[in-house]
Amino acid sequence: MKNRKKIYEGKAKILYQGPEPNTLIQYFKDDATAFNNKKKDQIPGKGVLNNFISELIMTRLKDVNISNHLIKRMNMREQLIKKLDIIPIEVVVRNIATGSLVQRLGIKEGKVLNRPIIEFYLKNDKLNDPIINEEHIIVFEWATPNELEEIISLSSRINDFLTGYFFSLNIRLVDFKLEFGRYWDNEEASIIVADEISPDNCRLWDVKTNKKLDKDRFRQDLGEVGKAYKEVAYRLGVLSENEFKKVIKNDL
Ligand code: TMP
């Protein structure tokens, strides 16, 4: 890799200084973690797949006027992105009950919700990303009331759009996590989508078989994690088997 300044290293990605002011380079690693870093492994090719999958989804969101940080994909593992002030909140949108919702509230696994639920978690590994509500966000000034309104509106639009998009590929969008940031342009900030949208932070079930095509395969030791990500990439049409083989020698 070229010699450039590392700004931040997360569990699945690294951010480097970008070529111009207000830009960063987002590098996708093969590392997978779960349960706040307690479970760790490498999934060969995951970074490449997430790079392509997230590029496609962010591009589709832009097509429907939902702004996000992607400027362009640079290569197999990197994207040029806009530099943002990250809002320290993880927004989870749920369509079907599973995961922590089922564990916390004893709701039946797989229940289709009457309407989507939006939840907020504080991005704080030391505290295990605790669940918070809108009052916390406003009182502790993690976002202003206007920003929060925009975050909720964007999350809902993204869910509506992506639910239909994935359904057309025979995939149910069960739930997913979003992050947002403030993008400053001429002293004015707008809220735009950050991070990535990929099988690392979405739950995706095959419509016919309910087969999990996402990171739950890793969290729950279901095996064939990379294969599931590849399946999502192929259904989205972002990478062919041949292109992928050029990068990753070992079969997933
Ligand atoms: P949960 O059911 O474990 O709360 O997860 C809800 C959704 O958020 C699921 O699609 C996975 C995603 N998620 C992340 O992207 N990062 C996380 O740290 C957690 C806990 C969940």
Task: Give descriptors for this structure.
five-stranded antiparallel β-sheet; 31% helix; 252 residues; D-amino Acid Aminotransferase, Chain A, domain 1; alpha+beta; binds thymidine-5'-phosphate; Phosphorylase Kinase, domain 1; single chain; 2 domains
Report on this structure.
By secondary structure, the protein is an alpha+beta fold. It is built from seven helices and 15 strands. The protein has two domains: 6-84 and 225-239, 2-Layer Sandwich (Phosphorylase Kinase, domain 1), CATH 3.30.200; 85-206, D-amino Acid Aminotransferase, Chain A, domain 1 (2-Layer Sandwich), CATH 3.30.470. The chain has a five-stranded antiparallel beta sheet with strand order 1-2-3-7-6. It has a five-stranded antiparallel beta sheet with strand order 11-10-9-12-15. The chain is globular and about 45 Å long. The model has no long low-confidence stretch (mean pLDDT 95). The site of thymidine-5'-phosphate (TMP) has 11 residues, from helix 2, strand 12 and strand 15.
